[in-house]
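From the pipeline queue, job 12 of 40. The input is one protein chain; the requested action is below.

Action: predict structure.
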Amino acid sequence: MSYVKIFFVLILSILVSFGVFFLHKSTPKVSVILLTHNRHDLLPRALDSILNQTYQNFELIVINDASSDNTAEVLENYRVKDKRVRVINNETNQGIVPNRNKGIFLSTGKYITWQDDDDVSEPTRLEEQVRFLEKHNDITILGTQISLLNSERMIYLWPTETDPEKAEIAFLIGRMPIVLTTGMWRADFIKKHKIFFDESVPLVEEFAIYDKLFAHGGKMMTLNKSLYQYRIHRTNPQQYYDKIMEIQSIIYKDRWKKFFPNFDFPEMTCERLNYVRTHNRFFRQNLLDEMYMTHCKSGIYDPTYTHQKIVYEDGYEDHVIFSINTGKFYSERKKKGGKVIGKEKGKIKILWNGETTPQIY
């Protein structure tokens, strides 16, 4: 090779290096943390949904929590193919909460976000969240709306809030202000204030995190767009869900006492919201009035929505989103809704949307 060619190759290499440097400088690094345990069948789809993002400046930290299936082999294949994948294989099972903290400590990005091993991120998720956070420096955690996996139906019928002050109000009255796995966090704020997960709280670990964040003046909100597909698993015993409700109740009541020490936490969500609205010293009054009219008076949202279970003849247990007020619900199995039109001896009669003959379950 002539000296001229060597010179041009050298110049081209320098230009490429500078181009990559400035590209990464203009697109801040995101640390995506994925925890997994014995999900080798669902894991590839979750990994691919991150690796195929339109936003490419990220590291994918995968913590394999001592899986006994071939998860380690699956992860090794991905690590070899893509240098952005970092794999940590735990020798013993440590659980979700310690591993979330481990992921935060290992992260090197300006932003930290999450991906569950059985869910799917939409292709533009990281790009849209980074773009928003770069323009809104006051927002500490930014989430997205979610949909049920393989469905356009939103799961949260009382939506996560798209205004930071509304999100704080929602948390005060016992509603989820943001879905943990969709949240993109400012790493400097989180690490500066040592806002880590409480390892004494093994379930619904995000509730304690949000309480700490608000205490340090952090703000959170949700993009009004579904960028995350969420999979519901209802295979745990009832005691598991009872424990979740117990932990939620303790955290919500503790926060309520910080605002209203002389008034007990009301039983119903709309009662709480109305009390905050009529005894307000903390928030913009117009926001409280708007939330109350929208969620509790307009009929657009039904605060009595909850999760219920129906059992089909083949033994399949279908957990549905159900309204106590109206009897309407949405089934994940059928991907459509229906209405309870009768109850008798422990069974319910359902008329599915688009059908003329009721079914008994």
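Job complete. Residues 15-23, 151-158 have pLDDT under 50 and may be disordered.
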